Amino acid sequence: MNGTRHRDVDEYLQRLRRSMGDLPAERRDEILAEIEGHVSELLAETSATTDAEVRNVQDRVGDPDDIAAEARDRLGINQVTRSEPPRTSWPDIAALTLLVVGSLMITLASSPEAMLVAWMAAVVLLWISDVWSRSDKVTVTLILLVGGLGAVAIQDAREPEGFIYFASILLAAVLPPALLGLKLRRAHLAGGGRCGPPAGGRER
Amino acid sequence: MVDGQERLLTQMRRGTLEYCVLALLREEERYGFDLVRALAAVDGMVTSEGTIYPLLGRLRRDGLVSTTWEESPSGPPRRYYRLTPKGHKALGEFVEEWQRFRDAVDRFVEGGNG
Questions:
Q1: pLDDT value of residue A174
Q2: Residue A70 and residue B36: Cβ atoms within 8 Å?
Q3: Which of A18, A143, B49, B60 is the most buried (most CB within 10 A)?
Q4: A71 with B89: CB under 8 angstroms?
Q5: For residue A103, which of A140, A153, A139 has the smallest C-alpha distance?
């Protein structure tokens, strides 16, 4: 162990540092320094040099995430970022976008076909998503169904009472994106702003 | 079943590991690697060796142990842990409670209670 350390060891310590990224710097550095020393002692004791031997040493020391979890637990730091509330991902954004696109298609381009395609795709993505509750999904799907049927009916009939249909479509075009957008924002705020009991801890 | 056993062991260890550490420091000061080795020599006390360090950090913050740096015959200096008076007191209280608790549980699990 003359100076040059196996690159996997550095990589392991880096991973550990990242895993403990949310701990107070002083605590994190202390634990890191101790584990670095521990790894050196283990490497020296077992005279591990090959990749497999070094990996075996890492297995003994433990998974960085486990050590970080233990540190949060022992230091009374609430885990916020990792036990995440469902995080917004691209299907959620895509669902919202498609809803708006569908709404524009019917209100501006008067194209029920394009609207139906966009909304159907949006509904599929909506049901895949886990940021919205089941009741949100049911509500939005029903509104879209009514709006979609209204659009088809308006195209077939083009009669004076078509105004009612048009109003319902307009409602279907505005309500779902507004509702889902609002819920998304709230989920976002709840995720980022949930406060842990003990003071100190969180720094980000 | 194995999962349940593992969870049970984890829970029991969670509550008692820190006192095992304090007990290991009762007679002599030790550095982290040495502590882990002593704990690992007993089956079931340590799973991931690295998880002992967050615990040591907490014991230090709570004033149950104090640390000093000492030269090592090989390699970088080592952080040695030793029991403070507060640590001695906490250990003594635990030992008393633990004996009472262990006897109580034994009376039930070893059968013939009544």
A1: 83
A2: no
A3: B49
A4: no
A5: A140
A71 vs B54: CB contact, 8 Å cut-off?
A: yes
d(C-alpha B103, C-alpha B114), whole Å: 15
Of A33, A41, A67, the CB nearest to B54: A67
Among residues 16-45 of chain A, which lie with CB inside 8 Å of chain B? Answer: 16, 27, 30-31, 33-35, 37-38, 40-42, 44
Question: How far, rounded to the nearest angstrom, does the alpha carbon of residue A199 sit from its chain's CA centroid?
Answer: 25
Rounded distance, CA A123 to CA A196, Å?
35
Q: Tell if the pTM clears 0.80, that is, is over it.
A: no
A62 touches chain B (CB under 8 A): yes
Contact A44 B74 (CB under 8 A): yes
Phi, psi of B65 (to 5 degrees): -130, 155
Q: What is the ipTM of this complex?
A: 0.86
Q: Give pLDDT tens digits for B9-46.
A: 888 888 899 999 999 999 999 999 999 999 988 877 88
Under an 8 A CB cutoff, do A71 and B36 touch? Answer: no
Q: What is the pLDDT of residue B108?
A: 92
